[in-house]
Design the sequence.
C-alpha cells in the first residue's frame, strides 16, 4: 500500500508534522489501514532523501514541519494519473485454497466455500453497518465532511470487494454443481433418492475432468433428478 | 433480543412436493425464530427453498409438517378465516414485482388491507398517509402505480406491508426489479422499519442487500446449513497495520 503517496497527497494541502499526517491519513480512510507514527517518520525520511519533501521550520508548538517539493508534486501527479496495476495480481490465499480443495481427499470443497461465504457475508454486514453510519455523517454535513466522504468511499470499496468475493464463491459452487450434473452417472442407483440426507460428502472430484466419480456414492449436489427441476420455487 | 417473544417462529418445518418417484423435499426441518427489531436475510442457490420458506411463513402455502407461529398464533392449525385475519393484521408481504393494484392510488393501495380488516375508509386513509409519509412518499399519495418509478412503487409496497400494527414483513427479492442504487434505498428503508421494532425476513440472492440484515441464514437443499452471528463492527477495522 502506498503510504508514500498518501502522505504526499496530504502534504499537497500545506506543511504538516508527522503525527498530524498520521491522524489525517486515518481520518480519510476511517482507520481501515492504521499507521504507526514510526512508519510515518520512516516514510518521511525516505521522501526527504529522495527530494520529494523538505523540512521547513516548526509550528507554534515546536513540531518539525514537512513540505512537499516540486519533485514531490510531480511524483504525486504521476501517481494520480497512472492506474493501479492489476495485471500482476497479488497472491490470493483464498483462490489458492479453493484451487487446492478441488479433489482434496481430506475436505469437502463445498464446506470450504460455505465457511468462507459465511465469513465474507459477515464482513459485508459489518462494513454495511459502518457505511450506514458514514452515510448519516455525510448527510448531516459538518466540519469533517471531506473526511466522512473519503471514509464512505473506502467503506464502499470494501463492500464491493467482499461482494465480488461472495459472488465468486456462489459461482464456484454453481460451477461445481453444473460440472457434476454433466458428468456421466456413476451407476443407475446413483440417481435414486438419497433418503432425504443431504450428505456433506460432496464429491471432491466434481470438477475433475476424469469421468471417474466414486462408485455408487449418490452425488449430494444432485440428490434426485427432481431436485434440480426448480420445483421448490 | 432473546428475552423478547419472537414475532415469527418456524419449528421443524418440512415441505414435500409430489410423491413417490417425483417427490421433492423443498424444506427439511427448518427451525428459525425472528425477533422484534431483527432483520434476517435468507440466502441460497436457486431451488434451495428460500421462497418456499417465505410463502409458508406468510401463510400463503402450508407445510407438510412442523409449526409456523406468528406472534401467538399457530397458523398451521388456524382456520381459513383466522389465517386471512392474521395476514391482514400481522403479516406484510413485499414481492419482487410490487403487486400493487393498478387501478388504485398509492394511498388506496396502502389503505386497502386496513379497510378489508374493517377499519373505516377515513381512518384507513389517515393511516395510509402516515405510512407513506414514513417512506418519504407523502407527496405521491394520489399517484397511480404506473405514474411512479419502480423504487417508488416498492416503497409503497413496503408501506402497505407495514401499515397498521403489523410487525412482520416478509420480503421476497424486493430489490430484484430495481437498479442497484434504488435497491439499496429500499433496503435502507426496510432496515429502518426493523430498527423501529418490526421483524423482517428478506429472501435475496444479492449479498450486498443481505448485508443489511442482522443475521444471514444460508439454505441449501431445503435445510439451514449455516448462519452469520452479529458482532460489534467496531472490532472489525482494527489490528491491521499498513505496510509501506
Sequence:
Amino acid at each position: 500500500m502506498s503510504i508514500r503517496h498518501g502522505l504526499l497527497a496530504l502534504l499537497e494541502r500545506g506543511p504538516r508534522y508527522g503525527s498530524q499526517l498520521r491522524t489525517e491519513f486515518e481520518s480519510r480512510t476511517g482507520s481501515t489501514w492504521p499507521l504507526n507514527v514510526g512508519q510515518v517518520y520512516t516514510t518521511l525520511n525516505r521522501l526527504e532523501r529522495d527530494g520529494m519533501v523538505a523540512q521547513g521550520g516548526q509550528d507554534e508548538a515546536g513540531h518539525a514541519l514537512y513540505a512537499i517539493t516540486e519533485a514531490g508534486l510531480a511524483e504525486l501527479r504521476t501517481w494520480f494519473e497512472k492506474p493501479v496495476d492489476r495485471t500482476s495480481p497479488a497472491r490470493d490465499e483464498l483462490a489458492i485454497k479453493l484451487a487446492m480443495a478441488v479433489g482434496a481427499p481430506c475436505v469437502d470443497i463445498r464446506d470450504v466455500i460455505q465457511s468462507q461465504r459465511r465469513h465474507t457475508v459477515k464482513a459485508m454486514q459489518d462494513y454495511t453497518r459502518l457505511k450506514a453510519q458514514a452515510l448519516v455523517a455525510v448527510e448531516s454535513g459538518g466540519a469533517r465532511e471531506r473526511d466522512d466522504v473519503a471514509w464512505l468511499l473506502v467503506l464502499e470499496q470494501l463492500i464491493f470487494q467482499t461482494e465480488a468475493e461472495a459472488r465468486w464463491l456462489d459461482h464456484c459452487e454453481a460451477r461445481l454443481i453444473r460440472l457434476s450434473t454433466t458428468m456421466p452417472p456413476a451407476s443407475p442407483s446413483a440417481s435414486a433418492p438419497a433418503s432425504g440426507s443431504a450428505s456433506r460428502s460432496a464429491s471432491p472430484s466434481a470438477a475433475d475432468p476424469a469421468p471417474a466419480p466414486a462408485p455408487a456414492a449418490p452425488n449430494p449436489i444432485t440428490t434426485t433428478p427432481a431436485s434440480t427441476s426448480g420445483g421448490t420455487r | 433480543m432473546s428475552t423478547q417473544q419472537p414475532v415469527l417462529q418456524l419449528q421443524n418445518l418440512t415441505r414435500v412436493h409430489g410423491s413417490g418417484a417425483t417427490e421433492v423435499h423443498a424444506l427439511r426441518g427448518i427451525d428459525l425464530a425472528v425477533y422484534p427489531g431483527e432483520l434476517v436475510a435468507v440466502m441460497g442457490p436457486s431451488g434451495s427453498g428460500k421462497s418456499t420458506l417465505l410463502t409458508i411463513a406468510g401463510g400463503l402455502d402450508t407445510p407438510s409438517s412442523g409449526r409456523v407461529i406468528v406472534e401467538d398464533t399457530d397458523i398451521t392449525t388456524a382456520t381459513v378465516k383466522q389465517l386471512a385475519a392474521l395476514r391482514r393484521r400481522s403479516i406484510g408481504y413485499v414481492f419482487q414485482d410490487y403487486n400493487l393494484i393498478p387501478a388504485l392510488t398509492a394511498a388506496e393501495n396502502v389503505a386497502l388491507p386496513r379497510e378489508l380488516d374493517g377499519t373505516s375508509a377515513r381512518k384507513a386513509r389517515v393511516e395510509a398517509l402516515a405510512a407513506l409519509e414514513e417512506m418519504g412518499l407523502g407527496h405521491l399519495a394520489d399517484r397511480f402505480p404506473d405514474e411512479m418509478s419502480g423504487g417508488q412503487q416498492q416503497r409503497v409496497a413496503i408501506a402497505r406491508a407495514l401499515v397498521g400494527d403489523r410487525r412482520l414483513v416478509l420480503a421476497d427479492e424486493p430489490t430484484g426489479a430495481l437498479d442497484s442504487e434504488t435497491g439499496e434505498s429500499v433496503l435502507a428503508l426496510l432496515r429502518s422499519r426493523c430498527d423501529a421494532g418490526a421483524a423482517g425476513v428478506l429472501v435475496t440472492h444479492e449479498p450486498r442487500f443481505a448485508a443489511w440484515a442482522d443475521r444471514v441464514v444460508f439454505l441449501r437443499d431445503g435445510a439451514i446449513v449455516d448462519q452469520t452471528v452479529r458482532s460489534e463492527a467496531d472490532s472489525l477495522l482494527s489490528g491491521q497495520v499498513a505496510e509501506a
Residues 180-195 of chain B form the longest helix (16 residues). The longest strand of chain B covers residues 24-34.
